[in-house]
Design goal:
The complex is a heterodimer of chains A (115) and B (113). By secondary structure, chain A is an all-beta fold. Chain A contains no helices and 11 strands. In chain A, strands 2, 4, 5, 6, 9, 10 and 11 form a 7-stranded mixed beta sheet that branches. A 4-stranded antiparallel beta sheet of chain A has the order 1-3-8-7, with no helix packed on it. Chain B has no helices and 12 strands. Chain B has 113 residues and is mostly beta strands. In chain B, strands 2, 5, 6, 10, 11 and 12 form a 6-stranded mixed beta sheet that branches. Chain B has a 4-stranded antiparallel beta sheet with strand order 3-9-8-7, with no helix packed on it. A two-stranded antiparallel ribbon of chain B has the order 1-4. Classes of the chains: A mainly beta (115), B mainly beta (113).
Chain lengths: 115, 113
């Protein structure tokens, strides 16, 4: 079946630094990937839609200069949290679909803690 | 715009008892509906999905859900729960099966021994 991986699974960084999270589709190509954020005991909130070879589409209220998304290939999308602050601590989850007409598959998530 | 409502934030139920987790959605177009389960500190696992066809959908781990278009509902049921079913359950909707997914607020299911 279709598998989506994320790396790292957990990361701790200091306030003010930047951290990059990778999302890979392991056995299929994904033109579009999605990035979600989940606060403790809350639901997943869509942050942005990542399109291969073009700019990401951000949801209202999401700072595109703070959450940089790069979809450089059909199997890799990266989310970079720039100048991270403690309030950016969260669980970040990506998803991808093999092609139009197929369901989305979710990655296992990345736990970011900013100290 | 699409939205999803899960009326029960927490549902405690005794082991081997039946359970129903409620989900209602709103959308101006036809939608695809999903139920996901999330165990503590883990990612999402798809329980079942409704894309078209039969309104009664069977999923993994003995769960099933029924799509009711007139009531815009997609309630999740299991006839007999197990301790291992304790988790967070999310109802979700999208306009197509590959489009962005909008999640409900989640229902925390606690199975009591």
């Amino acid at each position: 079946g279709a598998v989506v991986s994320q790396h790292p699974s957990r990361v701790i960084c200091k306030s003010g630094t930047s951290v990059k999270i990778e999302c890979r589709s392991l056995d299929f190509q994904a033109t579009t990937m999605f990035w979600y954020r989940q606060f403790p005991k809350q639901s997943l909130m869509l942050m942005a839609t990542s399109n291969e070879g073009s700019k990401a589409t951000y949801e209202q209220g999401v700072e595109k200069d703070k959450f940089l998304i790069n979809h450089a290939s059909l199997t890799l999308s990266t989310l970079t949290v720039t100048s991270a602050h403690p309030e950016d601590s969260s669980f970040y989850i990506c998803s991808a679909s093999p092609d139009r007409g197929y369901e989305q598959y979710f990655g296992p998530g990345t736990r970011l803690t900013v100290t | 715009a699409q939205s999803v409502t899960q009326l029960d934030s927490q549902v405690p139920v005794f082991e081997e008892a039946p359970v129903e987790l409620r989900c209602n959605y709103s959308s101006s177009v036809s939608v695809y509906l999903f139920w996901y389960v999330q165990y503590p500190n883990q990612g999402l696992q798809l329980l079942l999905k409704y894309l078209s066809g039969s309104t009664l959908v069977k999923g993994i781990n003995g769960f099933e859900a029924e799509f009711n278009k007139s009531q815009t509902s997609f309630h999740l049921r299991k006839p007999s729960v197990h301790i291992s079913d304790t988790a967070e359950y999310f109802c979700a909707v999208s306009e197509t099966s590959y489009d962005k997914v909008i999640f409900g607020p989640g229902t925390s299911l606690s199975v009591i021994p």
